[in-house]
Amino acid sequence: MNASLAGIIHECIETKQYEHVYGMINGVMGLLESRYIDLLELFSEQEALNQLKHSPAMYLGSCRYKLPDVQDDPQTYERLFHTFEQLQITDFYYIGGNDSMDTVAKLSSYARSISSSIRFIGIPKTIDNDLMGTDHTPGFGSAAKYVATSMLEIAYDSSIYKLNAVTIVEIMGRNAGWLTAASALARTQCNEAPDLIYLPEVPFSTEKFLEDIRQVFRHKKNIIIAVSEGIKNENGDYLDSDSKYTKRDAFGHILHSGTGKVLETLVYQEFKCKVRSIELNVLQRCAMHIASKVDLDESFQIGQAAVQAALSNHTGVMMTFKRKQNYPYQIECTYKDVSEIANLEQRIPVEWINKDHNDITQELYDYLIPLIQGEVTIQYENGIPCYSNISHLRYK
């Protein structure tokens, strides 16, 4: 997100078309509370802009706020557009996932209804890679690189013991298994882990799962398994679903955490061997020290392209990547009508999952591998990374 934000700021400076570039603190919710800062004042120097590009998370903060439909709450739209008018806003850029694109779609639609000339541009960002209309999303490549690297390091650690053991690695992905599939990128000449991969795009059978493990035990002692947090059984129920404990986020999405533990118990009861489960959790989305250079460069590039799209008078669109080829890898930035993208999910094509539903195909591997290429050089201070100052996000 910060790399795309840096791309926007950089392009606004280069074009000399903007007197101010305001950043909403905590998204639309922050703007409704009149919390914003002038980014041109803060990032006029290239060094500060580079630091922003290499900082994790989101410098401006985020929000879990779903913009209501205009017919249900017209006052919210009136307040927002009154603020736009006061600040003399010409272009509105919103970086995020599906719900953020829903916001862009709603605001651009309202703008048309009142004949507002403000241009609304969506910039995709989600580590889940589940946005429709784009080859992949900024943020995914770096998260995939972290998953693959962590899987490789887990495999090295697990290899030191000569005993029957199963390690289950739970990876983010409610309905789309892109990140879990990226664990296959850990395979090298001396490492075949993960031995099994389970994705939410296909039904999960506990009986088949145990049989898969039994088969792998026939030729090796130490088994490493990658599972998506959102895998479901044949009835469509999440493995960690329990009406007594299920929690949901502000958008109504089920907060899954526990799939690995469910499977850990199942495996121990069946095989009575050493079993552990590891949940990568939030680390998957904030490990800037192992970011993909391709990902950061593309994120910056799509931010620049968003500014050019606005200057070309486009509105109500989401910026997208179109892949021209895998080898050598080449993409271009384009855009699509955001109303045709918002609230839809891009899932792994079933033909990219093997017939036994416990691994990926070569086609999926070829799609993934270009996205994790290149390493990022970040600045250190006192032995730890030196990131952008986010003291403005603290509530007083």
TrEMBL record:
Domain Phosphofructokinase: 1-286
Enzyme Commission numbers on file: 2.7.1.90
Site (described: Important for catalytic activity and substrate specificity): 99
Entry keywords, A to Z: Cytoplasm, Glycolysis, Kinase, Magnesium, Metal-binding, Transferase
Matches recorded under InterPro entries: ATP_PFK, PFKA, Phosphofructokinase_dom, PKF_sf, PPi-PFK
Keyword Oxidoreductase set for record: no
Activation and inhibition: Non-allosteric.
Cofactors that this protein relies on: Mg(2+)
Record-listed Mg(2+) binding positions: 98
Function description: Catalyzes the phosphorylation of D-fructose 6-phosphate, the first committing step of glycolysis. Uses inorganic phosphate (PPi) as phosphoryl donor instead of ATP like common ATP-dependent phosphofructokinases (ATP-PFKs), which renders the reaction reversible, and can thus function both in glycolysis and gluconeogenesis. Consistently, PPi-PFK can replace the enzymes of both the forward (ATP-PFK) and reverse (fructose-bisphosphatase (FBPase)) reactions.
Family the UniProt entry places it in: Belongs to the phosphofructokinase type A (PFKA) family. PPi-dependent PFK group II subfamily. Clade 'B2' sub-subfamily.
Listed name of the protein: Pyrophosphate--fructose 6-phosphate 1-phosphotransferase
Organism in which the protein naturally occurs: Allocoprobacillus halotolerans
Gene designation: pfp
